[in-house]
Amino acid sequence: MSVARLRPAPLGHTSTLLAAFLCLGLATANLARVESAVVPAAALLAGMFGASRKPRRVGLLAVALALAGWWWGSARLDALDYSSLTGRLETAGRARAIVTGPARRGKYDVRAPGVVTRFAGQALHESVLLKLPLGRAPPQGAILDALVRVTAPRGPKNGFDERTWLRRHGVHVVLLVDGWQIVGRRSGLGGVADALRRRLKSSVALGLTGYRAAVLEGVVLGEDSGLSDELRRRFRASGLYHLLAVSGQNVALVAGSALLLVWLVGMPRLFGQLAALAAICCYVLAVGAQPSVIRAGIAGALGSLAWLTARAADRWHLLVLGAIVLLGWNPYTLLDAGFQLSFAAVLAIFVLVPRFQRFLEGYPLGRSLRLVVAISAACGLTTAPIAWLQFHSVQLLTVPANALAAPAVAPLLGLALAAAAVAPFSTNAAAALAWLNGWCAAYLVAVARLVGGLPIAQVKSTRALLVLLSGALLTAAYACPSRWQQS
Fold first, then answer.
1. Does residue 66 share a domain with residue 47?
2. Domain identity same for 346 and 361
3. Secondary structure letter of residue 470 according to DSSP
4. pTM score, two decimals?
5. Model confidence over 32-85: pLDDT tens digits?
6. CATH number, domain containing residue 169
7. What angle, rounded to 10 degrees, do the helices at 337-351 and 315-329 form?
8. Under a CB-based contact definition with an 8 Å cutoff, are residues 23 and 327 in contact?
9. What residue numbers bound the domain in which 209 lies?
10. Strand pairing report for 6-7 and 313-314
11. How far is CA 384 from its chain centroid?
12. b/e for 401-415, b at 16 or more Cβ within 10 A?
C-alpha cells in the first residue's frame, strides 16, 4: 500500500463525520436498545429531504445514521442474546459440533470454541464453548460427533466472569463433552481459513519446539496457548504482551512483502496491489476475527483499493470503517479489552506520536529509536487506563521493554513470512529460516523475562497507583514552574 496515499484528513470531513455518527449509534445500543425501525427510517428521510442548506442536511443525515446504527445495533444484540439451548440446561444428548477456533489446554480440561448444528436430533446453529477431557484436542475446523451435557457458564470467580465474557461473544451455554470422534471437516470459507491457518502454523516454526515455537506462533497467529503461565506473566508485566496479539504491523508487513515480491519479479505495480490485497485477505482468514487484525485488515485492503481506484485514503475514515464493521457485527465488541486497546493505540499513534517525536528531537536518539520510544510512550500512556480497568494492572517499563525488543520484531515477522512462503517448495529452507528466527524469539523471551521480572515492572495495587500518580503530578508541577506562575 502506498504510504503517500494515506493522507491525514480532518475529522470534520463529511464522509468521516457521517461514518463516526453511524459508529456512535452502533455503540449506543450497549446502553439502551430501540425496538422499532420507524424512528431511524423517518429520521433518515428527514435527513435526506428535510433541509435545503447543505450543513443542516449533513447534520440531519448524521443524526439519522446514528439512529439507524442504534436500531441495527439493538437488533444485533437481540440476536446475539438469543439461545435455544438455555432451555435445555443440565440435559444430555448426542450433538454435532464444528470446532471454530484453536483448542486451549487447561489444568483440568481442553476448551475450544464451537458451533452446534444438531443436538438430540434437533437442527440448530448456535455458538458454544466446548469443554473436552484432557488428552488429544480436536483441530480447528473439525466436525465432531459427541455425547455432551448442556451446562451454564460459570459466574464471577477470581476476578473473571466467564458468563458475561461468553455472552458478549454470543455464547450462552457450555457443552461438557464425554466422548467424541471426528466425522469430517467444515467446508466453504471457514474451511479455507482452517487450511490457511494449518499451513501458516506448520511452516513459521518448522522444526522448532518449546518456547521458541510458541513465541513465533504467538507473534504471527496471535495464539499464546503454547506459552507457559510464567512466561505469559512476564510478557504481560513487561508490556510486551501486545506482540502476542496480531496487530497492524503484521498486516502492513504482509502487504509490504507482497508488494516487494511483485517488484522483485519485475511485474507492474497494479499486480503488486492486487497481490497485497489477496495476501491481506488470506492472512486475516488465517488469523481469525480478532479486533486488531480486522481493523488493520480493513485499513490495508481499503488502502490498496484506494490506490487501484486512484483515490486518496483518509486514515481517520479507515479507522472508523474498521470500528463500524466490528460493531455492526457485534456491538458487544465495544466492551472487549482487545477492541479498546487496539483502537486506543491507533488513536495514540495518530494524535500523540508526532508530538512526542518533536519533543524527543533534542535528545541524542537515533531516528528509529526516537520513533520506537514515541510510539511506546504514546500507546502506553493511552492504554494504561484501559489496562487498569480491564486487568487491574499498569505496566511501568513498557517504553524500555519495547525499545529493547524493537530490533527483533520486524526481522521475526519477516523471517516467519519468508518461511511460510518457501515451505511449499523447500521444507529444508523453511526449517533453516525458522531456526534462525528462533533466535529472534529467544531474544524477545529474554527481554520479557528481564524486564518483567523486575519488582517495579508493573503496579497492581490501588495504593501504589495513587502514590505513582501523585509523584507524577508533583514532578510535572516542578518541571513546569513558569506555566503555573503564568496561570
1. yes
2. yes
3. H
4. 0.80
5. 888 765 555 665 565 555 555 566 777 778 888 888 899 999 999 999 999 989
6. 2.40.50
7. 170
8. yes
9. 196-477
10. parallel
11. 17
12. bbbbbbebbeebbbb
